[in-house]
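Appendix B. Chain record.
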Amino acid sequence: MITLLFLLVVGAQAQHEWTYSEGVLDEKHWRLQYPDCGGTRQSPIDLKMKKVRYNPSLRALNLTGYGLRQGEFPMTNNGHTVQISLPSSMRMTTSDGSQYLAKQMHFHWGGASSEISGSEHTVDGMRYIIEIHVVHYNSKYGSYEEAQNEPDGLAVLAALVEVKDYAENTYYSNFISHLEDIRYAGQSTVLRDLDIQDMLPGDLRYYYSYLGSLTTPSCTENVHWFVVADTVKLSKTQIEKLENSLLNHQNETIQNNYRSTQPLNHRVVEANFVSHPHQGKGYLHMKQGSRVEPSLTCHPLDSGSLQA
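Structure tokens predicted for this chain:
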């Protein structure tokens, strides 16, 4: 009887779990239970190069404690993605002096049918293979729980991933080898000796910046986004492993766990570069006379245009 009751409770919870594409709480209906998901400052967005505004005052982000760290880092299958808990001693300081403490790191990917790409943010409509989010909260608040409802409470450092067929990224070997330990929703394991900086792009100096929201319910509109211009490179084998290892609450493979891009609604997207700092296949170029030549000028923002 106890086992039956447990299964009934779990089944009822699964029926009311939000999803991306199935059930009564799919992405199109999030706003019915989570009103903020229908707001005017939602994420992710399409980063349209012609509309990006150059801001020379945006200095490189100052990341502290992102290098190799000894200890234990819980990693969980939460039914939507794989999430790694991070220590608050990992910190990100932005150009305006705001300091954000790390909370967790998670991933968004594709993999279902013909949808091989699964990043949330796109660049001129181009969707990358995977997107990495390192979630932080403002150090002016005592905890993530307090900060998550404050207008300036959160910040996310986002990185896009490209596929490289010929080489595995050894910095991801430990992470990927543990995915089999959390196949089912709710399962957890522990990573040891983690180096987040090596799991991010090699060049973190250049980025896009804008104000938006969480990309999953409750979609609170209090997130300062920093999307890195450089990319992470993973092998096709590594990507397929991530796309096919985890099951959701309905025991279906977690795939295409990304939200559709949302309207910009007159928001300003800034960048601290004029021409794209990285060249090569998979990168977007901003060459004189090309289709994606930006109209980036050094003029001040309208007052309040980037207020939380």
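Further analysis of this model is presented in Appendix C.
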